[in-house]
Known about the structure:
The longest helix has 16 residues, at about 290-305. This protein has 3 domains: about 5-70, CATH 2.40.50.140; about 90-235, Rossmann fold (3-Layer(aba) Sandwich), CATH 3.40.50; about 245-305, Probable gtpase engc, domain 3 (Ribonucleotide Reductase Protein R1, domain 1, Orthogonal Bundle). The protein is globular. With about 325 residues, the protein is an alpha/beta fold. It is built from 8 helices and 13 strands. The strands form 3 sheets. The protein has a 6-stranded mixed sheet, sandwiched between helices. Strands 1-2-3-5-4 form a 5-stranded mixed β-barrel. It binds guanosine-5'-diphosphate, magnesium ion (MG) and zinc ion. The site of magnesium ion (MG) has 5 residues, from helix 5.
Amino acid sequence: MSSLKTGVVMRTDAKFVHVEVDGVVVQAAPRGVLFGMDDVRREQKNPVAVGDHVEVDLATTPAGVEKVLPRKNTLSRIASSHDPREQVLAANVDQVVIVGSLAKPKFSSNRTDRILATCVWQHLPAVVVLNKIDLVDDDEFEAIRDTYEQIPVPVIATCAMDGRGLDELRETLRGKTSVVYGASGAGKSSLLNALQPGLNLKIGKISKFWDAGKHTTTFSQLHRLAFGAAVIDTPGIRVFRPYGVPVANVRDLFPEFERHSKRCHFPDCSHDHEPECAVFDAVESGDIPASRYASFVEMLDEARQTKPPVDEVEGEPLEE
Ligand SMILES: Nc1nc2c(ncn2[C@@H]2O[C@H](COP(=O)(O)OP(=O)(O)O)[C@@H](O)[C@H]2O)c(=O)[nH]1
Ligand SMILES: [Mg+2]
Ligand SMILES: [Zn+2]
């Protein structure tokens, strides 16, 4: 009988890949062959990611990850400003749940827009969760909610403290594999703990939020929730740069620009310097929120500066 089994990657750390095989999590070492197998993989920083379906050999000690099965999709970014390779944060996911706190830490439209743009690029459905609604007044909350609903993206308002929005969040997660992404301190662990008492994810202390480099979660981990959901808790990544977006495609990552862009004077208008740009006019008139346009311009500039990937072996910390 073959000792090869198929399993799901629950977590990766510096040494081991934690693979769920027949309901049990085993630690396995990736085989050398997985590094630099083909041109695609050589440009990836990590050959195995959370959510991957892998073949493991349980006959060796430690067990070995022999093969990564074809992926349905990935959530990826450029590894860091010093490492242009693709970093796969999760594979085989149904949606990305973007948790943004409305206060403490302050809501970041730039962070939210970057991950949303990545979801458009990678064809991943996204949901925005606006957490800590107890900390802001209605006007502030509604302005942010409207910005995302007009894209359109579904928005759920939550408070991990008093339970508002948790039923809606539970139904959104049920039956799916979701990446839960957000700033350190946004309340990801608090929300997951509230949905499943006993999960016992570590909750960050408020005083640590602004202490750069200190995060309670330092690796992505897949959790199975008893109501029938799989969630991948991600570390508090600061800068999310989508991988492999050509300059000409950046504008497509902001779907609400589309209905205006037909009226731009130039059919290939980049919406950042051309005269008679209908997208720019829409920003001026308030039809497109200025925060969205600012994120777009920043990502466009970044795409223009991105050099083609180079082969680099040096390890980089996950967070930046
Ligand atoms: N006021 C308020 N505080 C919250 C809420 N959700 C989380 N927090 C607090 O925010 C801090 C960070 O939460 P945590 O779950 O560790 O955030 P994570 O880094 O995204 O996992 C903790 O002190 C929580 O108690 C909320 O809805 N309202
Ligand atoms: Mg956390
Ligand atoms: Zn234009």
